[in-house]
């Protein structure tokens, strides 16, 4: 409602109930999860096949350890990003959507962090196998920095800069 002393004020936000907000946020979250699930499942599926190639036996112990860590990270990322679907299915109709949205959001954020670790480890392994140059750690660090900027720094800056206090 406009403040009579300030004249017409610009309305901010939505006039939603907690349930309506939870429904909207759930739909937005599921759309986000669909995008990340596809990518992580393709990456994880590819990683699972590597151990069955003849080249795997020729990898150094260090590279095999990086591979194992990458596969475990990929499995964890897959679990975290599929978790919201299971959470929704198991609590659907129990009138806990606002709480479910909060937990699904946390699982999705965890999944993004695990996806960051998975893609970074996979990149490290691929570049170590493709080249033995000393620039590989710096190149991977640059890509990780790029991911951090795109996935976390820019969104957090935007939230800080444009969120009404």
What does this 3D model show about the protein?
It contains four helices and no strands. It is an all-alpha fold and 165 residues long. The N terminus is likely disordered. Helix 1 packs antiparallel against helix 2 and helix 1 packs parallel to helix 3. The protein is flat and about 60 Å long. The protein starts with 17 loop residues before the first helix and ends with a helix.
| Tertiary shape | flat
Content-based structural category: mainly alpha
- How is the biggest beta sheet arranged? none
Alpha-carbon distance between the termini? 18 Å
The parts where pLDDT drops under 50 for at least 5 residues are 1-11
Can you count the helices? 4
Mean model confidence by pLDDT: 90
Secondary structure topology:
Elements: H1 18-50, H2 61-91, H3 97-130, H4 136-162
Helix pairs in contact: 1-2, 1-3, 2-3, 3-4
Features:
165 residues; mainly alpha; 4 helices; 76% helix; 0% strand
Can you give me a brief rundown of this structure?
The protein is mainly alpha-helical.
């Amino acid at each position: 409602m406009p403040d009579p002393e300030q004249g017409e004020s610009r309305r901010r936000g939505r006039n939603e109930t907690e349930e309506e907000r939870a429904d909207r946020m759930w739909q937005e979250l599921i759309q986000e999860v669909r995008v990340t699930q596809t990518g992580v499942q393709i990456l994880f599926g590819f990683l699972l096949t590597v151990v069955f190639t003849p080249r795997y036996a020729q990898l150094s112990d260090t590279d095999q350890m990086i591979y194992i860590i990458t596969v475990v990270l990929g499995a964890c990322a897959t679990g975290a990003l599929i978790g919201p679907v299971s959470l929704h299915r198991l609590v659907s109709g129990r009138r806990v959507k606002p709480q479910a949205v909060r937990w699904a959001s946390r699982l999705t954020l965890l999944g993004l962090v695990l996806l960051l670790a998975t893609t970074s480890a996979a990149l490290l392994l691929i570049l170590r196998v493709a080249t033995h140059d000393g620039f590989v750690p710096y190149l991977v660090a640059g890509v990780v920095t790029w991911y951090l900027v795109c996935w976390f720094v820019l969104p957090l800056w935007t939230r800080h800069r444009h969120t009404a206090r």
